[in-house]
């Protein structure tokens, strides 16, 4: 007779789940035993439950499928939370399955007893339920998967351990109090009504200086976004999660926006008279047009996100691709192109300036050059997994993405530690594609080093061996150091900011991977080529200068007064800080 654990895996398989990321424990022994009795759903053991949740989120981002993670009761469940919040805030469909103590012990302050429904009520607020009988499991699984997929959110199923080995009930009794759920989440691409589309078109047609901001919700709509920009003579700025939405090559794509945004994006937002936001919840309103300067149109699949960052005149609730497709016939091609020409001139200036900055000398290596050397060498089908910190700045500013590439990081939670688990999840989902993780030494010391063990464990199964982990080794929690200086005018606080040195490349070789430590800027190109040609996963450790501000030149200039204040207060690296700020200055 099949157990409830067996039925859980069978039902997940029916929903298309082929891989579950997790870590074992006695609170899920019945489920782990079921894994051993079947081969349809693979269990991927991670080094920590947080990484299981990160990998589930990364799987969802890079495969378009629901991600599933599994943890035991109490401590295991708690460890999932950071990765689950990453999925929640970036609107990724992830289902968490967690164990619980025996039902008869609940409420007795039992060992590892945690009120898991309450614990998960925020991160999985759309749906979190604990099973109390075998008959429930069918609809708990079906609803958790359907809601996660339909609402692009996190859901949670809690299974007490004494239920897991009870007999499964695939079909509950046909009696009062039971329900019969089914498998399948309908595909939906809603389009706003005609009058809303016409209102939006009238605003966009009237605009003389149209700016577009594209976010993660515009994925799959790259052709439509480009066509709208061409019709309106608009420029396209990209939120961090929207970096891969449209390629960077068109001369009117201004690139990233915000504190790590380009000067072209900043100027476009300061000067535009009309703003079209597509699939973005970019949070920093100070980098959008001043209120009242621009008329606004927003497209989003989630009505809760409309008119949240800027007061919009037209709010279009719908799928980005379908909505833009319906909007395009209503748009007039602008014959007057001076605004477009102005944007293209600013983009050319911004790109030229950043290219020059990447080649400036540093001690020993300018971190920007690491990315500018990588950019033209990126494989056409590469998947990029970024981390938070200074890496995110250089990723945003210096990597020029082409059609077909995938890229993501922890966009809204902006947590450290996402790059390596994202990269491993991407490689498991796409074993034939090259994958590159972009991490700082802080994230590597937080969890990335452990993730290398999993990479070494799984590497033999990949048809394409290319998985590169870039580590920027600056012995500093660099982005926060420069936030202390540039936002608070405070000197670097060494006890919190300094990191121990560690030989990441040597450690990789110890694991049976390949690795190289680089401290010569002229060796970077050859190092990237060696890593890309390697026949096994490769750790490229680059020793970089911590005193190049991880910001675009125009932002560095704006923060000069705060840097001077930090120096006056006795920054321990005052001379090097001044040198780095001068190097990165736009003036």
Describe the structure.
There is one protein chain. Helix 1 packs parallel to helix 7 (137-151) and helix 3 crosses helix 15 (419-429). 39% of the residues lie in helices and 15% in strands. The protein is built from 23 helices and 18 strands. With 587 residues, it is α/β, with parallel strands linked by helices. The model has no long low-confidence stretch (mean pLDDT 96). The strands form three sheets. A six-stranded parallel β-sheet has the order 2-1-3-4-6-5, sandwiched between helices. The protein has a six-stranded parallel β-sheet with strand order 9-8-7-10-11-12, sandwiched between helices. Strands 14-13-15-16-18-17 form a six-stranded parallel β-sheet, sandwiched between helices.
Please give the largest β-sheet. 6 strands, parallel
Mean pLDDT: 96
Structural class: alpha/beta
Oligomer: single chain
Strand arrangement in the largest pleated sheet = 2-1-3-4-6-5
Give descriptors for this structure.
six-stranded parallel sheet, 18 strands, 587 residues, alpha/beta
Give the gist of this structure.
With 587 residues, this protein is α/β, with parallel strands linked by helices. 39% of the residues lie in helices and 15% in strands. It has a 6-stranded parallel beta sheet with strand order 2-1-3-4-6-5, sandwiched between helices. A 6-stranded parallel beta sheet has the order 9-8-7-10-11-12, sandwiched between helices. It has a 6-stranded parallel beta sheet with strand order 14-13-15-16-18-17, sandwiched between helices.
């Amino acid at each position: 007779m099949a157990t409830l654990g067996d039925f859980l895996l069978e039902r997940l398989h029916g929903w298309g789940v082929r891989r579950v990321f997790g870590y074992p424990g006695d609170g899920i022994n019945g489920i782990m035993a079921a894994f051993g009795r079947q081969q349809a759903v693979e269990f991927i053991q991670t080094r920590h439950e947080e990484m299981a949740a990160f990998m589930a989120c990364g799987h969802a981002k890079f495969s378009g499928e629901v991600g599933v993670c599994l943890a035991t009761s109490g401590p295991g469940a708690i460890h999932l939370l950071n990765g689950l919040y990453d999925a929640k805030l970036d609107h990724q469909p992830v289902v968490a399955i967690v164990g619980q103590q025996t039902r008869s012990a609940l409420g007795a302050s039992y060992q590892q007893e945690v009120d898991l429904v309450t614990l998960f009520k925020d991160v999985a607020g759309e749906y979190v339920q604990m099973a109390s009988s075998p008959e429930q499991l069918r609809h708990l699984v079906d609803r958790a998967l359907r809601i996660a997929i339909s609402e692009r959110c996190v859901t949670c199923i809690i299974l007490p351990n004494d239920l897991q080995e009870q007999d499964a009930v695939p079909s509950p009794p046909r009696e009062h109090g039971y329900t019969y759920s089914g498998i399948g989440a309908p595909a939906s691409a809603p389009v706003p009504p005609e009058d809303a589309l016409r209102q939006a078109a009238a605003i966009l047609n009237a605009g003389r200086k149209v700016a577009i901001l594209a976010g993660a919700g515009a994925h799959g709509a790259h052709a439509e976004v480009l066509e709208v920009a061409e019709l309106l003579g608009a420029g396209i700025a990209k939120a961090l999660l929207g970096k891969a939405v449209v390629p960077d090559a068109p001369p009117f794509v201004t690139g990233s926006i915000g504190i790590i945004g380009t000067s072209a994006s900043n100027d476009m937002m300061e000067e535009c008279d009309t703003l079209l936001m597509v699939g973005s919840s970019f949070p920093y309103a100070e980098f959008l047009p001043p209120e009242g300067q621009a008329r606004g149109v927003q497209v989003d699949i989630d009505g809760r996100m409309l008119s949240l960052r800027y007061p919009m005149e037209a709010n279009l609730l719908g799928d980005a691709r379908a909505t833009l497709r319906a909007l395009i016939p209503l748009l007039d091609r602008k014959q007057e192109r001076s605004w477009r020409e102005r944007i293209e001139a600013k983009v050319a200036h911004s790109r030229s300036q950043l290219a020059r900055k990447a080649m400036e000398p540093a001690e020993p290596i300018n971190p920007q050059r690491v990315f500018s050397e990588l950019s033209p060498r990126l494989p056409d089908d590469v998947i990029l997994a970024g981390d938070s910190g200074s890496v995110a700045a250089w990723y945003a500013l210096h990597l020029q993405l082409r059609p077909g590439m995938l890229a993501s990081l922890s966009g809204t939670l902006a947590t450290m530690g996402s790059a390596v688990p994202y990269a491993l999840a991407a490689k498991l989902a796409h074993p034939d594609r090259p994958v590159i993780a972009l991490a700082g030494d802080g994230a590597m010391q937080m969890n990335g080093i452990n993730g290398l063990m999993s990479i070494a464990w799984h590497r033999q199964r990949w048809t394409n061996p290319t998985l590169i982990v870039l580590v920027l080794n600056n012995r500093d929690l660099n982005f926060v150091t420069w936030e202390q200086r540039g936002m608070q005018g405070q000197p670097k606080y060494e006890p919190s900011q300094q990191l121990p040195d560690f030989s990441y490349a040597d450690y990789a070789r110890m694991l049976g991977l390949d690795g190289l430590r680089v401290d010569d800027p002229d060796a970077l190109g050859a190092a990237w080529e060696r890593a890309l040609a390697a026949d096994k996963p490769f750790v490229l450790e680059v020793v970089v200068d911590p005193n190049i501000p991880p910001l675009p030149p125009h932002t560095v200039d704006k923060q000069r007064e705060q840097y001077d204040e930090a120096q006056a207060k006795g920054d321990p690296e005052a001379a090097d800080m001044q040198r780095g700020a001068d190097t990165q200055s736009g003036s």
